[in-house]
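Example record

The entry below shows one chain as it appears in the dataset: sequence first, then C-alpha coordinates.
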Amino acid sequence: MAFINISLGYTDCIMLGRGVSEWQSVGLRLNEINVVCAKSILLTIVIVNIMITKKVLLFKVENIQECRRKNNIISLGGLILLYVILIYSFISQSYSFGKYESVTNPIFEYSLIILCFTWYYSKEMKWIDYGIWIYFFGFSINFLRIGDRSSVYMLVVLMAICYFYKLINVRTIGLVILVGIPITNFIAIFRDHLFSSFSDIIIQLVTRGLYVDTVSWAYYGSLAISMLYERVGSHLELIVGFWGRVIGIESQYSSLAIYARTNYSDLYNLGGGIYSSFFYAFGGYISVIIGAVILGIIIRKIMMSHRKYLPFKVLLIVYVFRWYLYDMTTLYRGVLIFVSLVYLVCLTIEQTVRHKIKC
Protein backbone atom coordinates (compact mmCIF):
# COMPACT_ATOMS: atom_id res chain seq x y z
CA MET A 1 0.00 0.00 0.00
CA ALA A 2 2.89 2.34 0.75
CA PHE A 3 4.30 1.73 -2.73
CA ILE A 4 0.97 2.69 -4.30
CA ASN A 5 0.27 5.65 -2.02
CA ILE A 6 3.70 7.21 -2.55
CA SER A 7 3.40 6.99 -6.32
CA LEU A 8 -0.15 8.30 -6.62
CA GLY A 9 0.31 10.79 -3.78
CA TYR A 10 3.12 12.56 -5.60
CA THR A 11 2.22 12.04 -9.25
CA ASP A 12 -1.56 12.25 -9.15
CA CYS A 13 -2.36 14.32 -6.06
CA ILE A 14 0.56 16.74 -5.69
CA MET A 15 1.64 17.05 -9.33
CA LEU A 16 -1.97 16.63 -10.56
CA GLY A 17 -0.95 13.98 -13.06
CA ARG A 18 1.68 16.01 -14.86
CA GLY A 19 3.50 13.83 -17.35
CA VAL A 20 0.73 11.26 -17.72
CA SER A 21 -1.14 10.51 -20.94
CA GLU A 22 -2.67 13.58 -22.56
CA TRP A 23 -6.21 12.20 -22.46
CA GLN A 24 -5.86 11.88 -18.69
CA SER A 25 -4.32 15.28 -18.05
CA VAL A 26 -7.20 17.17 -19.70
CA GLY A 27 -10.02 15.00 -18.41
CA LEU A 28 -11.29 14.27 -14.92
CA ARG A 29 -8.11 15.55 -13.28
CA LEU A 30 -9.41 19.06 -13.93
CA ASN A 31 -12.72 18.21 -12.26
CA GLU A 32 -13.52 18.70 -8.57
CA ILE A 33 -13.77 14.92 -8.30
CA ASN A 34 -9.96 14.85 -8.32
CA VAL A 35 -9.91 16.52 -4.90
CA VAL A 36 -12.77 14.33 -3.67
CA CYS A 37 -10.95 11.16 -4.70
CA ALA A 38 -7.73 12.29 -3.02
CA LYS A 39 -9.61 13.09 0.20
CA SER A 40 -11.28 9.68 0.12
CA ILE A 41 -7.91 7.95 -0.16
CA LEU A 42 -6.47 10.05 2.66
CA LEU A 43 -9.51 9.38 4.85
CA THR A 44 -9.16 5.64 4.29
CA ILE A 45 -5.44 5.68 5.06
CA VAL A 46 -5.96 7.62 8.30
CA ILE A 47 -8.74 5.35 9.58
CA VAL A 48 -6.92 2.13 8.69
CA ASN A 49 -3.71 3.36 10.32
CA ILE A 50 -5.61 4.25 13.49
CA MET A 51 -7.09 0.75 13.62
CA ILE A 52 -3.81 -1.02 12.89
CA THR A 53 -2.26 -0.38 16.28
CA LYS A 54 1.24 -1.18 17.48
CA LYS A 55 -0.13 -4.41 18.91
CA VAL A 56 -1.20 -5.54 15.45
CA LEU A 57 2.13 -4.58 13.91
CA LEU A 58 4.07 -6.47 16.57
CA PHE A 59 1.87 -9.55 16.26
CA LYS A 60 3.95 -11.60 13.87
CA VAL A 61 5.24 -15.10 13.45
CA GLU A 62 8.85 -15.36 14.54
CA ASN A 63 9.61 -18.44 12.46
CA ILE A 64 7.30 -18.77 9.50
CA GLN A 65 8.84 -22.10 8.50
CA GLU A 66 7.68 -23.69 11.74
CA CYS A 67 4.09 -22.80 10.89
CA ARG A 68 4.16 -24.88 7.72
CA ARG A 69 2.53 -28.29 7.60
CA LYS A 70 3.32 -31.45 5.70
CA ASN A 71 0.93 -33.27 3.41
CA ASN A 72 2.19 -35.12 0.35
CA ILE A 73 -1.16 -35.20 -1.43
CA ILE A 74 -1.85 -31.47 -1.11
CA SER A 75 1.69 -30.35 -1.94
CA LEU A 76 2.13 -32.68 -4.91
CA GLY A 77 -1.37 -31.98 -6.22
CA GLY A 78 -0.79 -28.25 -5.88
CA LEU A 79 2.53 -28.44 -7.72
CA ILE A 80 0.95 -30.38 -10.58
CA LEU A 81 -1.81 -27.77 -10.87
CA LEU A 82 0.77 -24.98 -10.93
CA TYR A 83 2.65 -26.56 -13.83
CA VAL A 84 -0.58 -27.14 -15.74
CA ILE A 85 -1.36 -23.43 -15.31
CA LEU A 86 2.18 -22.48 -16.33
CA ILE A 87 2.01 -24.54 -19.53
CA TYR A 88 -1.40 -23.07 -20.29
CA SER A 89 -0.04 -19.54 -19.80
CA PHE A 90 2.72 -20.13 -22.37
CA ILE A 91 0.20 -21.51 -24.85
CA SER A 92 -2.58 -18.97 -24.34
CA GLN A 93 -0.73 -15.67 -23.89
CA SER A 94 0.29 -13.95 -27.12
CA TYR A 95 3.32 -11.69 -27.32
CA SER A 96 4.30 -8.74 -29.47
CA PHE A 97 7.51 -6.75 -29.17
CA GLY A 98 6.96 -3.43 -27.43
CA LYS A 99 3.29 -4.11 -26.83
CA TYR A 100 1.53 -4.95 -23.62
CA GLU A 101 -0.97 -7.78 -23.85
CA SER A 102 -3.69 -7.56 -21.23
CA VAL A 103 -4.09 -10.66 -19.07
CA THR A 104 -7.75 -11.08 -18.21
CA ASN A 105 -7.95 -14.76 -17.26
CA PRO A 106 -8.42 -14.88 -13.45
CA ILE A 107 -6.80 -18.32 -13.25
CA PHE A 108 -3.37 -16.70 -13.37
CA GLU A 109 -4.20 -14.22 -10.63
CA TYR A 110 -5.65 -16.86 -8.33
CA SER A 111 -2.88 -19.37 -9.06
CA LEU A 112 -1.03 -17.59 -6.26
CA ILE A 113 -3.51 -19.16 -3.84
CA ILE A 114 -2.52 -22.61 -5.09
CA LEU A 115 1.17 -21.73 -4.79
CA CYS A 116 0.73 -20.46 -1.25
CA PHE A 117 -1.03 -23.62 -0.07
CA THR A 118 1.45 -25.83 -1.94
CA TRP A 119 4.26 -24.13 -0.04
CA TYR A 120 2.33 -24.20 3.25
CA TYR A 121 1.80 -27.98 3.09
CA SER A 122 5.34 -28.87 1.97
CA LYS A 123 7.28 -28.49 5.20
CA GLU A 124 10.67 -30.25 5.03
CA MET A 125 9.96 -31.26 1.41
CA LYS A 126 12.88 -29.73 -0.47
CA TRP A 127 11.88 -31.15 -3.83
CA ILE A 128 8.57 -29.27 -3.63
CA ASP A 129 10.47 -26.09 -2.80
CA TYR A 130 12.68 -26.62 -5.85
CA GLY A 131 9.58 -27.19 -7.97
CA ILE A 132 8.07 -23.95 -6.68
CA TRP A 133 11.21 -22.01 -7.57
CA ILE A 134 11.25 -23.45 -11.09
CA TYR A 135 7.61 -22.41 -11.43
CA PHE A 136 8.50 -18.95 -10.15
CA PHE A 137 11.14 -18.38 -12.82
CA GLY A 138 8.95 -19.81 -15.57
CA PHE A 139 5.97 -17.68 -14.57
CA SER A 140 8.09 -14.53 -14.23
CA ILE A 141 9.76 -14.94 -17.61
CA ASN A 142 6.45 -15.57 -19.35
CA PHE A 143 4.57 -12.66 -17.82
CA LEU A 144 7.43 -10.18 -18.03
CA ARG A 145 7.74 -10.86 -21.75
CA ILE A 146 4.15 -9.69 -22.25
CA GLY A 147 4.62 -6.78 -19.86
CA ASP A 148 2.33 -7.91 -17.03
CA ARG A 149 4.40 -6.53 -14.16
CA SER A 150 1.67 -6.67 -11.52
CA SER A 151 1.32 -10.46 -11.72
CA VAL A 152 5.07 -10.90 -11.37
CA TYR A 153 5.22 -8.31 -8.60
CA MET A 154 2.66 -10.23 -6.52
CA LEU A 155 4.52 -13.48 -7.13
CA VAL A 156 7.79 -11.89 -6.00
CA VAL A 157 6.12 -10.63 -2.82
CA LEU A 158 4.73 -14.10 -2.15
CA MET A 159 8.12 -15.75 -2.62
CA ALA A 160 9.80 -13.13 -0.44
CA ILE A 161 7.38 -13.79 2.41
CA CYS A 162 7.59 -17.56 2.08
CA TYR A 163 11.35 -17.93 1.76
CA PHE A 164 12.94 -14.72 3.05
CA TYR A 165 10.63 -13.80 5.90
CA LYS A 166 13.45 -13.27 8.40
CA LEU A 167 14.88 -10.52 6.23
CA ILE A 168 11.64 -8.55 6.17
CA ASN A 169 11.63 -5.49 8.42
CA VAL A 170 10.91 -1.77 8.21
CA ARG A 171 14.28 -1.10 6.61
CA THR A 172 13.90 -3.70 3.87
CA ILE A 173 10.32 -2.63 3.19
CA GLY A 174 11.51 0.95 2.76
CA LEU A 175 14.25 -0.23 0.42
CA VAL A 176 11.77 -2.24 -1.64
CA ILE A 177 9.55 0.84 -2.00
CA LEU A 178 12.48 3.01 -3.10
CA VAL A 179 13.84 0.57 -5.66
CA GLY A 180 10.49 -0.95 -6.60
CA ILE A 181 9.20 2.14 -8.41
CA PRO A 182 12.25 2.61 -10.69
CA ILE A 183 12.45 -1.14 -11.38
CA THR A 184 8.76 -1.19 -12.32
CA ASN A 185 9.29 1.81 -14.59
CA PHE A 186 12.40 0.27 -16.14
CA ILE A 187 10.43 -2.81 -17.19
CA ALA A 188 7.68 -0.62 -18.68
CA ILE A 189 10.14 1.59 -20.58
CA PHE A 190 12.11 -1.40 -21.83
CA ARG A 191 8.88 -3.02 -23.01
CA ASP A 192 7.68 0.07 -24.89
CA HIS A 193 11.09 1.14 -26.23
CA LEU A 194 12.79 -2.18 -26.78
CA PHE A 195 15.31 -0.91 -29.31
CA SER A 196 16.18 2.37 -27.58
CA SER A 197 19.69 2.97 -26.32
CA PHE A 198 20.48 2.36 -22.68
CA SER A 199 21.10 6.08 -22.11
CA ASP A 200 17.66 6.96 -23.52
CA ILE A 201 16.05 4.43 -21.20
CA ILE A 202 17.87 5.91 -18.19
CA ILE A 203 16.78 9.44 -19.15
CA GLN A 204 13.16 8.32 -19.37
CA LEU A 205 13.55 6.49 -16.07
CA VAL A 206 14.78 9.63 -14.31
CA THR A 207 12.08 11.73 -15.96
CA ARG A 208 9.33 9.48 -14.66
CA GLY A 209 10.49 9.80 -11.07
CA LEU A 210 7.79 8.40 -8.78
CA TYR A 211 5.31 8.04 -11.63
CA VAL A 212 4.13 4.48 -12.28
CA ASP A 213 1.80 4.18 -15.26
CA THR A 214 -0.22 1.32 -13.76
CA VAL A 215 -0.86 3.23 -10.54
CA SER A 216 -1.67 6.48 -12.32
CA TRP A 217 -4.08 4.84 -14.75
CA ALA A 218 -5.81 3.05 -11.88
CA TYR A 219 -6.12 6.38 -10.08
CA TYR A 220 -7.82 7.83 -13.13
CA GLY A 221 -10.18 4.87 -13.06
CA SER A 222 -10.91 5.86 -9.46
CA LEU A 223 -11.97 9.31 -10.63
CA ALA A 224 -14.45 7.79 -13.06
CA ILE A 225 -15.81 5.41 -10.42
CA SER A 226 -16.16 8.21 -7.87
CA MET A 227 -18.16 10.26 -10.38
CA LEU A 228 -20.83 7.56 -10.37
CA TYR A 229 -21.94 8.85 -6.97
CA GLU A 230 -23.37 11.88 -8.79
CA ARG A 231 -24.33 10.21 -12.05
CA VAL A 232 -26.21 7.09 -10.94
CA GLY A 233 -29.69 7.75 -9.61
CA SER A 234 -30.09 4.64 -7.47
CA HIS A 235 -27.09 3.97 -5.28
CA LEU A 236 -28.81 0.86 -3.95
CA GLU A 237 -28.73 -0.72 -7.42
CA LEU A 238 -25.06 0.19 -7.64
CA ILE A 239 -24.33 -1.44 -4.29
CA VAL A 240 -26.39 -4.59 -4.91
CA GLY A 241 -25.01 -4.98 -8.42
CA PHE A 242 -21.39 -4.65 -7.38
CA TRP A 243 -21.58 -6.86 -4.30
CA GLY A 244 -23.50 -9.43 -6.31
CA ARG A 245 -20.33 -9.91 -8.32
CA VAL A 246 -18.48 -10.91 -5.16
CA ILE A 247 -20.70 -13.99 -4.90
CA GLY A 248 -20.70 -14.61 -8.64
CA ILE A 249 -23.83 -12.76 -9.80
CA GLU A 250 -22.99 -10.64 -12.84
CA SER A 251 -24.81 -7.42 -13.72
CA GLN A 252 -24.14 -4.12 -15.46
CA TYR A 253 -22.64 -2.85 -12.20
CA SER A 254 -20.22 -5.76 -11.75
CA SER A 255 -17.32 -3.63 -12.95
CA LEU A 256 -17.87 0.01 -12.06
CA ALA A 257 -14.97 1.20 -14.20
CA ILE A 258 -16.40 -0.50 -17.28
CA TYR A 259 -19.90 0.71 -16.45
CA ALA A 260 -18.67 4.30 -16.20
CA ARG A 261 -16.75 4.06 -19.47
CA THR A 262 -19.63 2.42 -21.31
CA ASN A 263 -22.44 4.72 -20.18
CA TYR A 264 -20.71 8.10 -19.89
CA SER A 265 -18.39 9.34 -22.63
CA ASP A 266 -16.63 11.79 -20.32
CA LEU A 267 -15.81 9.01 -17.84
CA TYR A 268 -13.55 7.12 -20.21
CA ASN A 269 -10.93 5.10 -18.35
CA LEU A 270 -8.82 2.00 -18.76
CA GLY A 271 -9.96 0.22 -15.62
CA GLY A 272 -8.68 -0.10 -12.11
CA GLY A 273 -9.88 1.76 -9.07
CA ILE A 274 -8.49 2.56 -5.62
CA TYR A 275 -10.34 0.82 -2.77
CA SER A 276 -11.91 4.02 -1.42
CA SER A 277 -13.38 5.09 -4.78
CA PHE A 278 -15.82 2.18 -4.81
CA PHE A 279 -17.23 3.13 -1.45
CA TYR A 280 -17.47 6.78 -2.43
CA ALA A 281 -19.57 5.73 -5.41
CA PHE A 282 -21.83 3.79 -3.04
CA GLY A 283 -22.62 6.69 -0.73
CA GLY A 284 -20.09 9.50 -0.53
CA TYR A 285 -17.77 10.17 2.40
CA ILE A 286 -19.95 8.30 4.91
CA SER A 287 -19.59 5.19 2.81
CA VAL A 288 -15.83 5.75 2.54
CA ILE A 289 -15.59 5.78 6.34
CA ILE A 290 -17.59 2.55 6.55
CA GLY A 291 -15.37 0.93 3.94
CA ALA A 292 -12.22 2.00 5.77
CA VAL A 293 -13.51 0.61 9.07
CA ILE A 294 -14.40 -2.69 7.40
CA LEU A 295 -10.92 -2.86 5.88
CA GLY A 296 -9.32 -2.10 9.23
CA ILE A 297 -11.33 -4.87 10.90
CA ILE A 298 -10.39 -7.38 8.19
CA ILE A 299 -6.69 -6.56 8.47
CA ARG A 300 -6.77 -6.76 12.28
CA LYS A 301 -8.67 -10.05 12.37
CA ILE A 302 -6.48 -11.75 9.79
CA MET A 303 -3.11 -10.47 10.96
CA MET A 304 -3.83 -11.33 14.61
CA SER A 305 -5.32 -14.75 13.89
CA HIS A 306 -3.80 -18.08 14.93
CA ARG A 307 -0.71 -19.36 13.12
CA LYS A 308 -2.77 -22.09 11.45
CA TYR A 309 -4.37 -19.34 9.35
CA LEU A 310 -1.01 -18.31 7.94
CA PRO A 311 -2.13 -18.55 4.27
CA PHE A 312 -4.74 -15.85 4.91
CA LYS A 313 -2.09 -13.51 6.31
CA VAL A 314 0.29 -14.11 3.44
CA LEU A 315 -2.31 -13.75 0.69
CA LEU A 316 -3.86 -10.63 2.21
CA ILE A 317 -0.48 -8.95 1.78
CA VAL A 318 0.27 -10.49 -1.61
CA TYR A 319 -3.00 -9.42 -3.19
CA VAL A 320 -2.88 -5.84 -1.91
CA PHE A 321 -1.71 -4.72 -5.35
CA ARG A 322 -5.01 -6.03 -6.71
CA TRP A 323 -7.60 -5.24 -4.06
CA TYR A 324 -6.27 -1.82 -3.14
CA LEU A 325 -5.32 -0.58 -6.60
CA TYR A 326 -7.44 -2.42 -9.18
CA ASP A 327 -10.59 -3.95 -7.79
CA MET A 328 -11.57 -4.55 -4.17
CA THR A 329 -13.46 -7.65 -5.31
CA THR A 330 -10.13 -9.44 -4.99
CA LEU A 331 -10.22 -8.82 -1.24
CA TYR A 332 -13.78 -9.90 -0.56
CA ARG A 333 -14.05 -12.70 -3.12
CA GLY A 334 -10.42 -13.73 -3.53
CA VAL A 335 -8.96 -13.50 -0.03
CA LEU A 336 -12.07 -14.01 2.09
CA ILE A 337 -14.05 -16.49 -0.03
CA PHE A 338 -11.69 -18.34 -2.38
CA VAL A 339 -8.90 -18.72 0.17
CA SER A 340 -11.45 -19.95 2.72
CA LEU A 341 -12.74 -22.57 0.26
CA VAL A 342 -9.23 -23.80 -0.56
CA TYR A 343 -8.41 -23.87 3.15
CA LEU A 344 -11.49 -26.01 3.87
CA VAL A 345 -10.62 -28.39 1.02
CA CYS A 346 -7.10 -28.81 2.39
CA LEU A 347 -8.41 -29.43 5.91
CA THR A 348 -10.79 -32.07 4.54
CA ILE A 349 -7.94 -33.82 2.72
CA GLU A 350 -5.80 -33.67 5.86
CA GLN A 351 -8.51 -35.15 8.07
CA THR A 352 -9.35 -37.85 5.52
CA VAL A 353 -5.72 -38.94 5.22
CA ARG A 354 -5.26 -38.88 8.99
CA HIS A 355 -8.40 -40.99 9.47
CA LYS A 356 -7.25 -43.61 6.95
CA ILE A 357 -3.84 -43.83 8.60
CA LYS A 358 -5.47 -44.46 11.99
CA CYS A 359 -7.69 -47.15 10.47
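Notes for this example: The chain has a mean pLDDT of 83. The radius of gyration is 21 Å.
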